[in-house]
């Protein structure tokens, strides 16, 4: 039997989020039913709902940084039981049989993974709905366990912002002795600073604004470079092993390539648009530099980043909100006015700030 759920949905690109009652599917044999406790607010939520990427479907309940408590499990579920505290990130399904899926890299599924919201379900073709709601039903393969002792509120954003920055740092082998530049100091950037530091790297934050220098040092950056200051940029020519670029809008990456040593790697995790202005071929060729991209992380690595953060005492800096503050939060997020992630306390949807 499907179960009634309460959420906040966008019904078009122009309308604000509003309370919406809908149904969660009847659990399948491999499904975990989850009562949602917290949900992080990611910039992608806003982009998707406002159809900035031309892929929206409505109504949509956004939210893919979900922490909750298991309420029931299907007969075939082996890893979870009622009462467990679990997480759900950006993916809820994939083909499960291509080489990427078989390698635990479901984010690169040959058929495309099923997004937590706004994707057709692979079995019944209904649209998936995300975590700005009181419950969710997800196949256990796409559920992770929240480690003992981790602060659940501030751990929610690890399921997107955390894994998005952790996965490339791990994949490209960042370790003690490496010099790593983090470009941008938003939700992704501040996690990049913390995670690269915890991996032992010497971390430099690149920011356009002088005003973020003190804050970046507080977050654990060893150095800060104001990228709009040409003399500061010139002073770091050919200095870095890696550059983790979290900026989601078009920007000139040539000055950052020049800051890489020979064989250095520039990793894009925020930009989905064409690179503009164009990248200098010489900037790559003359120093054998690598320009790379990376998308979130697979399910095994999503569990790994949670465990890593629990072990190292790393969490996201969050500002808690109630669900009825979500539209205001989106406006502030669009202006960069949040340090560094809003997280919705989902008790607020159960207490009545919800659909009648
Ligand atoms: Zn996200
Ligand atoms: Zn696949």
TrEMBL record:
Keywords associated with the record: Metal-binding, Oxidoreductase, Zinc
Annotated SMART domains: PKS_ER
Protein name: Hydroxyacid dehydrogenase
Superkingdom to which the source organism belongs: Bacteria
Record SUPFAM superfamilies: GroES-like (SSF50129), NAD(P)-binding Rossmann-fold domains (SSF51735)
Names of the cofactor(s): Zn(2+)
Similarity section: Belongs to the zinc-containing alcohol dehydrogenase family.
CDD domains reported for this sequence: CAD1 (cd05283)
Gene3D superfamilies listed in its UniProt record: Medium-chain alcohol dehydrogenases, catalytic domain, NAD(P)-binding Rossmann-like Domain
All residue ranges annotated as the Enoyl reductase (ER) domain in the record: 9-344
